[in-house]
């Protein structure tokens, strides 16, 4: 709360998530589990709550920034979200070892367009849904006063902090770094370890868990959507659509530039039909990448564009990735506000990453 504007707070949230991105391979854990509680605390401190009609003060704006930072940071590093390593593998399988992306190559390629997106995104959302509270000149003193009111850190708070650090270490893959990849812990397993620790220590009771209606709602309907998307892939529908689209574009005779652009647009906006980026990438990435190569698109240009688009498309819906139902479920925005912002940000991000990105990658000699 050291900045005196809503924009300053938004940029602070974006910076915090960017710092965590390289070492948090779960975008859901990062955006929904780490940054979102901080965002809610900030909104609450300004009297902007989701359930009393005051979300327009600043909560709605910060919630939309909180979520739309997540797709950008997920695109920045191979280790920022689970499907990114899969994308690296799929690119190599189709284009050969010459198109292999290292961690540093990916990060350098993403740096400039991501920086532009992170600067632009809070401004775009500010224009769409300007918060009622725009200036917060007393924020530093207000924050210090609230900290004094909270008093010393209690034992349950210390336990919670310890569990939080443990979860960060597990999500970041620290056991794998220290003892070998066989000791890596699945992000879902890590979350259950954290929950068990809080229950066993008495910080949480089972009644506390049962009262969290938003979490149970997320588990039930999000799991069903993921299952349906997976079966669409298993039954061959998605692959058939991908190959049909690729063949149709080839017959248009518009060259590899126009063909690649159409492939990317179809790939991104088909995410309206998916509740999981991993399911979407598994079903469509290889087919669309192969179709683009057949059109004559440069392998690295096409690969990077599709790779980064695989994260940017998360912005579209309230079910597009695991972070979405967590933040949307907190109730700060309506469905219409969420979808409108997602569509606008998808267009803005694609323009930035395709134009600035392709020029940047050309300068780097990637294609």
TrEMBL record:
Q: Where in the cell is it found?
A: Membrane
Q: Where would one find coiled-coil regions in this protein? A: none
Keyword field: Membrane, Transmembrane, Transmembrane helix
**What topology in the membrane does the UniProt record assign?**
Multi-pass membrane protein
Gene Ontology cellular component list: membrane
Origin, by domain of life?
Bacteria
- What InterPro entries does the record point to? CitT-rel, SLC13A/DASS
TM annotation in the entry:
72-92, 104-129, 159-180, 187-206, 218-237, 249-269, 281-304, 341-361
The answer to whether keyword Transmembrane applies is: yes
Q: Could you cite one Gene Ontology molecular function of this protein? A: transmembrane transporter activity
Protein family per UniProt: Belongs to the SLC13A/DASS transporter (TC 2.A.47) family. DIT1 subfamily.
What the entry lists under NCBIfam families is as follows: dass
This one is known as DASS family sodium-coupled anion symporter
From which organism does this entry originate? Morganella morganii
């Amino acid at each position: 709360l050291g900045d005196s504007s809503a924009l300053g707070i938004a940029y602070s949230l974006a910076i915090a998530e960017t710092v965590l991105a390289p070492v948090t391979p779960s975008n859901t854990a990062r955006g929904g589990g780490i940054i979102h509680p901080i965002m809610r605390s900030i909104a609450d401190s300004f009297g902007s709550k989701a359930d009393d009609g005051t979300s327009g003060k600043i909560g709605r704006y910060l919630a939309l920034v909180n979520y739309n930072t997540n797709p950008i940071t997920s695109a920045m590093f191979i280790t920022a979200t689970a499907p990114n390593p899969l994308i690296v593998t799929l690119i190599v399988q189709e284009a050969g070892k010459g198109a292999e992306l290292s961690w540093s190559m990916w990060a350098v390629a993403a740096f400039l367009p991501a920086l532009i997106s992170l600067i632009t995104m809070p401004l775009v959302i500010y224009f769409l849904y300007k918060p009622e509270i725009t200036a917060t000149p007393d924020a530093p003193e207000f924050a210090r006063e609230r900290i004094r009111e909270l008093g010393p850190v209690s034992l349950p708070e210390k336990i919670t902090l310890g569990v939080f650090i443990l979860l960060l270490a597990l999500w970041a893959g620290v056991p794998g770094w220290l003892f070998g990849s066989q000791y890596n812990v699945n992000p879902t397993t890590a979350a259950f370890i954290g929950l068990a620790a809080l229950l066993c220590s008495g910080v949480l009771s089972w009644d506390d868990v049962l009262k969290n209606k938003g979490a149970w709602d997320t588990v039930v309907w999000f799991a069903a959507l993921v299952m349906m998307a997976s079966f669409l892939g298993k039954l061959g529908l998605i692959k058939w659509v991908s190959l049909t689209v690729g063949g149709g574009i080839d017959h248009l005779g518009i060259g590899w530039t126009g063909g690649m652009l159409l492939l990317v647009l179809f790939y991104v906006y088909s995410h309206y039909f998916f509740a999981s980026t991993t399911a979407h990438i598994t079903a469509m990435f290889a087919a669309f990448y192969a179709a683009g190569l057949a059109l004559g698109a440069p392998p690295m240009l096409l690969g990077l564009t599709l790779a980064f688009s695989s994260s940017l498309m998360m912005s579209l819906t309230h079910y597009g990735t695991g972070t979405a139902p967590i933040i949307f479920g907190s109730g700060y925005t309506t469905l219409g506000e969420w979808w409108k912002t997602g569509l606008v940000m998808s267009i803005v991000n694609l323009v930035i990453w395709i134009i600035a990105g392709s020029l940047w990658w050309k300068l780097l000699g990637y294609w």
